[in-house]
Design goal:
The protein contains five helices and nine strands; from the N terminus they run ααββββαββαβαββ. The chain is α+β, with helices and mostly antiparallel strands.
Length: 222
């Protein structure tokens, strides 16, 4: 991936201030170390268009096979994320971008042999959440739990690139490299029957946690 240098001194100053504020009082890093981290955050981000085709897995969770698309646009200090999902249930769809680079679609990904890939088995493949696609992309905390609803939905959110990159860095230690990352969308009808072996997390019902589509993010040709 080609690294993009951000020319605007105002943007660099803003990013440095945001990142240093997020770390003050807790990291104990020297100014030189903080400057290096800020520079890495900026360098790791390419402007341009990114896209992922969202294909179904766990196909036997219900009688409908959802599909969709995710599009991410980065221009200067703005990130625009758009996801569309065609599904048949009016349920909340938790969605997030993960650190891994593969979708959990093979039989061996079902580690307990119950014929489903639950959220814990999924994360063994996709890795942890890089950032959620929720009500506020600028902050992991502010928009927590605010996700789109089916049946069928279009989700569009905008964020400050510097704020999003700083939030990701402070929480995960990762840079905001989108190329090759995995996007997952969850959620089936609450009446869906699932085996006792179907794991969940974070006090979600198994149905809300159930992963249903996955896509790998690719950068579009300029």
């Amino acid at each position: 991936m080609k690294m993009k240098t951000v020319a605007s001194s105002t943007f660099l100053l803003t990013l440095a201030l945001l990142t240093s504020c997020g770390k003050s009082g807790s990291s104990g890093r020297s100014g030189q170390e903080a400057e290096t981290i800020d520079h890495e955050v900026v360098k790791q981000i390419d402007e341009g268009s990114y896209r992922a085709l969202l294909r179904p897995f766990n196909n036997h969770l219900n009688g409908f096979l959802p599909s969709g698309i995710a599009e991410i646009e980065i221009r200067e200090d703005q990130v625009t994320v758009k996801t569309l999902l065609d599904d048949d249930g009016r349920v909340m769809h938790m969605q997030s971008i993960h650190m891994g680079n593969r979708c959990p679609i093979t039989a061996r990904d079902d580690q307990n042999g119950d014929t489903y890939v639950d959220i814990k088995e999924m994360e063994a493949i996709t890795g942890a959440v890089l950032f959620p696609l929720d009500g506020d992309l600028n902050s992991h905390e502010e928009g927590a739990g605010q996700y789109p609803m089916g049946r069928g939905f279009t989700y569009i959110k905008k964020a400050s690139l510097s704020k999003l990159a700083g939030d990701v860095k402070s929480r995960t230690g990762q840079n905001l490299n989108l190329e090759g990352r995995v996007i997952i969308i969850h959620g089936v009808d609450p009446r869906t029957r699932l085996p006792d072996t179907f794991a969940t997390k974070d006090n979600l019902t198994p149905q809300a946690a159930a992963p249903i589509v996955c896509g790998i993010i690719k950068r579009e040709a300029p």
